[in-house]
Amino acid sequence: MKIEISEKSVRNEIARTVEWVSGQNLFACYQCGNCTAGCPVSFAMDLGPHQVIRYTLLGLVSEVLASNTPWICASCLQCTSRCPKGLDIARIMEALRTVVLRKKERLDHISIVDLTDDLIDRTPQIAFISGFRKFLS
Amino acid sequence: MGRVGVVFCLCERLGDSVDKKAEGIQETIEKEVDFNWLATHPGVCTKWGIDFLIKAVREQKLEGVVIACVAPKSVGPTLKKAIVRETNGTVLTRCIGLPVGNPEPSTQSETVETLKRSLDELRNEKSPQRAGPSIERAMVVGGGIAGMTAAIDLGNGGYETILVDRLPSIGGRMLQLSETFPTLDCAQCTLTPKTVETGQHPKIQLRTYCEVEKVEGKAGHFTVTLRRKAAYVDWEKCTGCGLCQEKCPQKTPSVFDRGVGLGKAIYTLSPQAVPNKPVINPETCRYLQEGKCRVCEKVCPVDAIDYEQKETFIREEVGAIVVATGFDLYPLSQIGEYGSGSIPDVVDGLAFERLLSASGPTTGEIRRPSDGRVPKEVVFIQCTASRDPDRYMPYCSRVCCMYTAKHAKLYKHKVPDGRAYVFYMDIRSTGKGYEEFIQQGMEEEGTCYLRGRVSRLFQDGEQIMVWGVDTLTAKRVEIAADMVVLATAIIPSEGAGILAQKLPGVETDVHGFFTEAHWKLYPVDTGTDGIYFAGCDQGAKDIADTVAQGSAAASKVQALFAQYRNETSPEAQGQR
Amino acid sequence: MDYLYFPGCTLYTKAKNLDVAARECAKIVGFELRELPNWTCCGATFPLAIDNLMALLPPSRILATAMEAGGNLTTLCSVCFNVLRRTSYLLESDLEKREKIFDFIEMEYRDGLRVPHYLEILRDEVGFETVKAKVKRDLKGLRVAPYYGCLLLRPFDEMRFDDKENPTILERFVESIGCEPVDFPYKIECCGSFQSVSAPEVAIECGYAILKSALKNGAEVMVSTCPLCQFNLDTKQREIREEYPEFQGIPVLYFSQLMGLSFDLPMEILDFQRNDVDPLPFLERKGLL
Description:
The structure holds three protein chains of three kinds.
Chain A: H1 7-10, H2 13-22, H3 34-38, H4 49-58, H5 61-66, H6 69-72, H7 78-82, H8 89-101, H9 117-122, H10 125-135
Helix pairs in contact in A: 2-8
Chain B: E1 3-9, H1 18-32, E2 37-41, H2 47-59, E3 62-69, H3 72-87, E4 92-97, H4 105-124, E5 137-141, H5 145-156, E6 160-165, E7 179-180, E8 185-186, H6 187-200, E9 204-208, E10 210-218, E11 221-228, H7 243-247, E12 251-253, E13 262-264, E14 266-267, E15 279-280, H8 286-290, H9 295-299, E16 312-318, E17 320-323, E18 327-329, E19 346-348, H10 349-356, E20 377-384, H11 400-414, E21 419-424, H12 434-445, E22 448-451, E23 454-460, E24 463-470, E25 475-481, E26 483-488, E27 490-492, H13 496-502, E28 531-533, H14 543-566
Chain C: E1 2-6, H1 8-11, H2 16-29, E2 32-35, H3 57-69, E3 73-75, H4 78-93, H5 95-105, H6 118-126, H7 128-133, E4 143-146, H8 156-159, H9 169-176, E5 180-181, H10 195-198, H11 200-216, E6 221-224, H12 227-235, H13 237-243, E7 252-254, H14 255-262, H15 267-270, H16 280-285
Parallel strand pairs in C: 1-2, 1-3, 4-5, 4-6, 6-7
């Protein structure tokens, strides 16, 4: 597969939105992969956090928005804490989630109707509140 | 001082706003600054610019002149030298910087302030007096390969040279190395002839186990006070037989062996040490700590042990100083995610050198510090604490790519059924023969290179769990390693900052490396005439570059001595 | 020594066993938790989008209420602690946002409010020596794995709670009540957090790795500080065992329960029934009851 890269793709709208919402400079990333190396849930991600940054920067927007990565991220901040460039990668993930969740149509990433009574009964409220805040439009 | 003038160089590098800027500044200057003559010129660094300056200085009968231009560090010395030459040293010069691009009002007022300061300095400077020829004797601080190179060059040039080292013997970091890239020459075989030559050189006087206490004076006439630490051994009597070391009952982790080997409380750094005289470490010596033992005293056949020995101070008069204080490695204790130095089988590059070294604690066998087993899976991590502006050091340490490739290769030679993994971000192999060396390591030794950083290390049973990544496959990588070698960042050696404060006019950068007078044109010059540096105290570099700087610093000193001898005016003296 | 206490949504319900024991223990070591009036939910996440001021309103309002009431504000739940501490940091350092938020909630910002965690009060104000002096039941030989998780520690610059790679406050706490802390590498790894709602299979992996690591290093029980960690590490052991039948299980207690046990508090207060993996049989076998 080849990709065409131009000024337009490198400065794509999603990248700029992500930079604005996260307050992070995507160009600062030098792709060392430390975020992916230390991420406790990267085993379940289809793109590693470092790839998400790269794809966003190069304008591979549809791949990024289709990836499960921001929705697997648990905001544990291990990546943020060890990034040698001081990037707050957890904020980049949050920005990507908001790009999706702030669209006009509802794009929920938790299906409330599918939550079982057993789960609701056992789960502490904070899990629902934080989950809903992260994953519901 | 009599009349002083100000010249603004308005070359094209100032950009489109030259005229406007000159006008703006000129107005303020005329209002606020006290001077006798002001002019502008479109290019003072050119031949006709220099002619203009000299003509003006003569016609205006100036005794001092301040030149403002965009590149004061590189242009200043040339202008200064020309004016000195043409006026026989009677006119003093200062060169100050102008900001490039559109100046903010604040930078403009900064320029005006600098100008005022320079004029004050000019006025306060004593009119030139003959200082006489230099003391043609040099001091080199630091007995590593840079310092030895400088000392040998100076000695060969016929100048008496004092070589100072804070350790008991010379040789420096290179003495700790096993083999060196890209030739895999034995470091000792390269170094020992140099240490011996230094020790036997009729013009070189060794002052080991000494630290610089105070430096006074200026180029040509420095007075340096050295503090000779208490060795508790009378070196005049000592024959270097080594019996004391053999019999000393105290064994503690050796600093020289980076903690992977044990050392005695009375020690020399190596059997080939120059000078081959031991010292007692007062922090580990049983007698000096607990008042019991005195074994070394009993066995010494010449009564050289002296527990009462005190530190002494030595004054030396020299004309020039070369500072070559070398480097340290970033401390493992500060790297939390890699275990803060608490995992015994996670070592730094120098510790691995000691394990590889035939004269090291394992006589060259690769054995784990924890249990002495031969490690079969070894992970090397490049850029540890380097290229990490957020938490550690932002710069590239320059030698780690190469020595890690060397480590992996030597490991493979010693443990043929072992596997070496290297985590890297980029491979920087810019020296002669370096890239070939890296490629050969990959192709012929099968070193497995993984492109990415390691997020975390921890002890996992008897092994070390390595959580890394290979960004080329974009997969998280876990390796259960037997041993991990961290290529930690090169930092200035401990105390370099304190030494810099003792050296008049010598500055260090934010990381503690010495600042050169000009990034490109004066790479071994400090801000002060007569003080030069060489090696890793100026920034990370390999042995070849270090040796080149050692020779460069020595030739600067020799040129200085020659100039002081030949030129009549002291202002002409000094190379910048 | 009095502290305003923010219980948050979970402490009076699902995490009663964290709350009740902690308040009883506080009295014993010499401080009182006074419930913050008119508290609301903190939002349970600190907003990571820098333009999301809305999510900062509830924690700002909670902090403002505490400022009004006077005194310092403490909490037990790591999620609440993280949200309140980060919000407090933001209000101190970002004057523009502070002004906007306080304009909106129509309350007054007052300097000087501190938001210590319960454990910090033990460490910095009560002192672990005092805790040690109150111990009544000898728990000597009990090997405890202290689990920190993420939210107490990160981001380090804002939380300033303990070392981000090797925190030791829980170890010191465990020692003070006479147990033996067990070091295990997963003590600062994430439990899976709210992924237990959205991607339960991911959270199970996280929980399993943490528990396995503690067991491997010889732990007999684990202590947690957070209802969400407790859920992923204790309640979910049922699911973990379904996935990994060889997993033997390990009791996970709130730190306050273990403290209460060492102070010999009555069983009603320790409320071990709420823990999914009942620690009592093990403690009995160990001869500690």
